[in-house]
């Protein structure tokens, strides 16, 4: 029996990969060009090896402080998502209470609302709390989400009910069942959600621009956006900062891509 020819699919996927990698390659090329080379028409597709752009971006904005802010915010948001979303997912998947199904559908309806509609209410809340130009203003709105709850609920639903029954017979409370028995078994889902949350939090731009105006309190995405001028933008310096900001997330994705793919693929396997 002859094997099916798979080379057309591989060629197609390779071409798609090259298309997706093109923006990253262009970003790296421009980050190593001089300003006149970056503005040439037609564009110059080779670097000028202007390594000083990476030093200049640290002098243009407090990039080190913004990098630290981004790490702190991403870590705090991810920790909050993993804890609160897993608790809510456990309740929807394993506990029985009146109106559970209707409440879950209402909960998922939040995913249909554009995030821009929450900007003004969130800003007013942060202003009332006196949290403007602070890291907690960036952390608090992101520590819980409907998508994370839905994703982890699918993992909890896949676990046999006998685990809960056996633990209950031994005298375990629902919280003990959640923490000691079920949570370790949904580790793939936690890893996938954690990686998605880090990537989302790391690249978030609109909310950090709205709530924080102090450069010392900005994240990397907002700090780099401030490098755009009204009439002229130094694209090599801007792209050099983008390379510095993108590298940690790219490395994290490469290391954990298997867990991410497995977690997302499993999400739709249980109703």
Automatic annotation (TrEMBL):
One GO CC term on file: plasma membrane
Record family assignment: Belongs to the binding-protein-dependent transport system permease family.
InterPro entries, per this entry?
Answer: MetI-like, MetI-like_sf
Q: Cite the Pfam families for this sequence.
A: BPD_transp_1 (PF00528)
Judging by the UniProt lineage, the source's domain of life is: Bacteria
Q: What is the lineage of its organism?
A: Bacteria, Bacillati, Actinomycetota, Actinomycetes, Streptosporangiales
KW NADP (keyword) present:
no
Boundaries of every ABC transmembrane type-1 domain copy: 67-256
Keywords for this protein? Cell membrane, Membrane, Transmembrane, Transmembrane helix, Transport
- Major location (coarse): membrane
- In its UniProt entry, what is this protein called? Binding-protein-dependent transport systems inner membrane component
Localization, UniProt: Cell membrane
GO annotations under biological process? transmembrane transport
Q: Where are the transmembrane segments?
A: 67-90, 102-120, 132-152, 190-211, 231-255
- The answer on whether this UniProt entry bears the keyword tRNA-binding reads no
Q: How does it sit in the membrane?
A: Multi-pass membrane protein
């Amino acid at each position: 029996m002859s094997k099916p020819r798979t080379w057309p699919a591989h060629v197609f996927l390779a071409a798609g990969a090259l298309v997706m990698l093109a923006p990253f390659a262009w970003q790296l090329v421009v980050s190593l060009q001089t300003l006149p080379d970056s503005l040439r028409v037609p564009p110059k597709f080779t670097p000028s090896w202007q390594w000083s752009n990476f030093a200049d971006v640290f002098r243009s904005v407090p990039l080190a402080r913004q990098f630290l802010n981004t790490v702190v915010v991403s870590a705090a948001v991810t920790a909050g998502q993993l804890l609160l979303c897993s608790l809510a997912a456990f309740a929807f998947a394993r506990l029985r209470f009146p109106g559970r199904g209707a409440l879950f559908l209402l909960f998922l309806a939040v995913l249909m609302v554009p995030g821009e509609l929450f900007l003004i209410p969130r800003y007013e809340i942060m202003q009332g709390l006196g949290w403007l130009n602070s890291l907690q203003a960036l952390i608090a709105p992101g520590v819980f989400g409907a998508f994370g709850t839905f994703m982890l609920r699918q993992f909890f639903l896949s676990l046999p009910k006998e685990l809960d029954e056996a633990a209950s017979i031994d005298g375990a409370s629902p919280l003990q069942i959640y923490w000691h028995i079920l949570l370790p078994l949904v580790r793939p889902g936690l890893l996938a959600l954690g990686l998605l949350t880090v990537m989302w939090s790391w690249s978030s731009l609109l909310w950090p621009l709205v709530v924080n105006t102090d450069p010392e309190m900005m994240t990397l995405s907002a700090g780099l956006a401030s490098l755009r001028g009204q009439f002229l933008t130094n694209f090599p310096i801007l792209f050099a900062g983008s390379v510095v900001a993108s590298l940690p997330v790219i490395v994290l994705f490469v290391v954990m891509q298997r867990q991410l793919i497995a977690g997302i693929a499993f999400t739709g396997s249980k109703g």
